[in-house]
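Anyone? Bumping this.
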Amino acid sequence: MIMIRENFVQENMEKFSSQSKNCSSFFQLISNKGIRQGQFNIRGKVAKTPLFMPVATRGTVRGVSPSQLKEIGFEMILANTYHLHERPGEEVISKLGGLHRFMNWDGLILTDSGGYQVFSLSNYRKVTDEGVVFRSVLDGKEIFLTPEKVLEIQKKLNSDIAIFLDECPEYPCSAKREEESLIRTLKFAQSSIKVEKNPGQLFFGVVQGGMNFKLRQECVHALLSLGVDGLAIGGLSVGEEPSLTKEVLLATLEVIPPDKPRYLMGVGSDILEYIKMGVDMFDSVFPTRIARHGSAILYNKGRINISNKRFKEDESPLDEDCDCYTCRNFSRAYLRHLFVCGELLGKTLLSIHNLTVLYKTVRALNS
Amino acid sequence: MIMIRENFVQENMEKFSSQSKNCSSFFQLISNKGIRQGQFNIRGKVAKTPLFMPVATRGTVRGVSPSQLKEIGFEMILANTYHLHERPGEEVISKLGGLHRFMNWDGLILTDSGGYQVFSLSNYRKVTDEGVVFRSVLDGKEIFLTPEKVLEIQKKLNSDIAIFLDECPEYPCSAKREEESLIRTLKFAQSSIKVEKNPGQLFFGVVQGGMNFKLRQECVHALLSLGVDGLAIGGLSVGEEPSLTKEVLLATLEVIPPDKPRYLMGVGSDILEYIKMGVDMFDSVFPTRIARHGSAILYNKGRINISNKRFKEDESPLDEDCDCYTCRNFSRAYLRHLFVCGELLGKTLLSIHNLTVLYKTVRALNS
């Protein structure tokens, strides 16, 4: 089996190499000692790394306005290609001047490929080397996504960083399945790299290979030889033990050259540890999702659920160590009241706080 | 029947007169020609009239932050005594420094008496001259509200303007019922006026009397002789023809001295007409409630429902004549998208717009 893999990568390495490009001007590594610190400069916009991206699933970070995101300090957010393709459709967004203008966000935007939604949301799907057929979660309509198509969508959205289509294997799965999905991911990448980028846009390839270190490393090499601008690490935190996540991640990062940005997809916990290991970028719906259920993240003090009765007369701010809009202006007692009454403002205020904690915690490492 | 009424008012007039006070320093009538223009100055805070108050039912204008209300320009808001009594309770709010501090609103606050909620929300109720017994809409628990009790609650909330308990008759109802509820409202007012105000707080009496002009006018006289600081006009827009509303309102306003502020309770439509008739203050959940359902009020152009398909690619702002945060920053297409996807931000953005239209429309008359 290893033979087959090695042959595959060997055969393809040459093709890949011929397409290799130098794309490092958009990312500057500032320090590689201790915590990796870097800086994106894309289309004249700057974003320091390490960075955390709030998730604007449908072109909005749920319950938080773009001005509020800006006030927190975010420089880059993530939006979901699949959801925006379904509604309102990339054609509409393109006609309206692209996603930045559509949602009134003048910072940077990374869009995912939609691949994760295909594998996580749809019961019916068929994957071939050409692409993925699956049913819309909205209306059951059949959708055919190819590597080229997902990039065309992201070009119409005109995001700053676009991600290749990949195949994420289930966890746990067989060694054969890990390899198959890697091969498919690389075939998708080969088709993807041929798509012409929008001016200034970056293309990130996705590292798959299950929990197999060797496959992961081969995937990195193959993607690099294709000339991707950065590496999105997928297929982790999918149910495996955290210790295994770390081992696989370490093995993957080991073979990525220092000047390449590394984005760990969809992982919202243990971020500090992953940053120390050398990850530059994160996204997660976690801080906003738990906020909408009343759960607040405190600086270095774990979490509290603000609906708890013990906060009924608590006049202290949500987090004494925080200076976000919510903590500057409201008491725990008021926030609890909003949640007990199901008031919308509660969701917004806790989302602002949780995002601020994520932002500041990560930002403290790059300033 | 008229005899009985006249006797009642006659008898009581003397009692009322002895309690009369001069309370006009807090309200200055600036112009009485054409549109009435005035200015509140309560506890060092100013609010120009005519004014529209957004409704912060449970200590929050649904989906809108206090900073957003401030940015629109509001100087006074309304909060519901009954709802705040239920949750979190006036004791909690009092411990936390009063309603202003609790909800972080540094403008003026008017609280209603809770009387309207008693009559509109509760199926079971028993009204006597002492007060009202009814079942909590939250847990069915029996609640006994007296004229003194509703003022004690409002004193604990420490609102700037507190309203007396009243009895609002059903519509339509018999002449006898109109008179009975008027008599009870005045008895409540007699008990209410004896309650000592918080420093700087104002007490408004409620004008009832059904659709009977004479009863309405007698009610005004009686309340004035009690020495109320202003008049809240209740029991209108309860199902009667708009032409009747106007006739009753005119008859009521006719007998109110020019220096007394007049607040038309819970009426959110035809505001401009009522202002021209001499009303100073309004409140209504209407603009925020319809906003949460996607309905936007346009300046002088009626309403649109933003979820409508025709806005799918409409890149113009919600209202070209508006400069609110929403209209400055987002297209109709984006707002439609937010509503189609059920995104919270849509509710907030439309609420901001609708409140701005109400604010500016009324404000245009007093600047």
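Late reply, but here is one note on the structure posted above: The CA atoms of residues 3 and 9 of chain B lie 10 Å apart.
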